[in-house]
Amino acid sequence: MAAAKGEPRKKRYEVKNWSEYNEALVNRGDFAFWFSEEVVDAWEHENEAKKNGRPFTYSDLAIETLLTIRELFRLPYWQTEGFGKALAKLMNAGVAIPHHTSLVKRGAKLKVSIDIDLAKGPIDVVVDSTGLKVFGDGEWRRKKHGVDKRRTFRKVHLAVDPDSHAIVAQLLTESNVHDGDAVEPLLEQVEQEVTTFYGDGAYDQWKVRERLQEERIHQIIPPRKNAVIQQHGNSKKDPLERDECVRQIRRDGKKSWKESIGYHRRSLAETAMSRMKGAFGDRLKNREPPNQATELALRCKLLNAFVAIGMPLSIWG
């Protein structure tokens, strides 16, 4: 709707690089990357380390490639095996494709690195969580017959670099794990130095703030509505960041505080969550936690690859 005469035009984000971004979206569908010559050359497992039992036939890279294809096209394990055989035949690659049961077993132990192109130097991180459904009846049946006791979900915790939009850390937990409990394992995954931590009010816990203070990480976390000052001005210790936030909010209001510190950057974590659900859906296909963890890691790696191909250049105006 156009603004009425005399009224100022409402600001909004405008994409300034539609041509390049459209090309990037098309290139995201080019799956030739996932079956490159490098992958074919490293298809068989080297089995250099001595171990008991039958040696592996396929390398971790081969398993990861097929599971990546599975996530990219949302395939069941059976169809993933068939897709791999058809692709190997089409490319005349001369590689054997693992049985779908092998994909399940190896996927549970697979270690996936989500790093595509690490940023150089210190970074900021924005952190948030969301839920992914695991199993249970669909939305229609739930609405008609009530909640199914078997219905459950897993909690996904992401740490995102707001400058590159890349996911730098990810964690999958039970639904009852508090967001604050995920901060330490997320920070342990980040290889770069973290300058600033952005999080919503769920991360306003002293154990989180103390950990950030130990790491000398600036905290952009809104205090709770009933927050009180922990350390008053007559203390000889250095002022706490949370106390300074409480003082500024009391003086200028919460809206002014958010604008002054750039709290809006935290929404980029929600954008990453939305991007993940839009690309892969709102549920996990696997039922076993180890396979679910691998599934999440592969989704994050794919999203990082998408981001590396191209992102929209949005300008507020």
Give a structural overview.
The chain is of the alpha/beta class and 317 residues long. The protein folds into two domains: 29-107, no CATH class; 123-316, no CATH class. The protein has helices at residues 18-27, 37-41, 60-73, 77-91, 100-107, 139-145, 183-189, 206-214, 241-252, 254-261, 267-280, 289-309, and strands at residues 13-15, 123-135, 152-160, 167-174, 194-198, 218-220, 314-316. The strands form two sheets. It has a five-stranded mixed sheet with strand order 4-3-2-5-6, with helices on both faces. A two-stranded antiparallel ribbon has the order 1-7. Helix 3 packs across helix 12 (289-309). The longest helix has 21 residues, at 289-309. The model has no long low-confidence stretch (mean pLDDT 85).
Structural class: alpha/beta
Shape: elongated
Rg calc: 23 Å
Using DSSP, what is the number of strands? Answer: 7
The largest sheet has its strands arranged as: 4-3-2-5-6
Share in β-strands: 5-15%
Main sheet: strands, sense, barrel: 5 strands, mixed
Q: Quickly count the domains.
A: 2
User: Which regions have little confidence, pLDDT < 50, spanning 5+ residues?
Assistant: none
What's the overall average pLDDT, rounded?
85
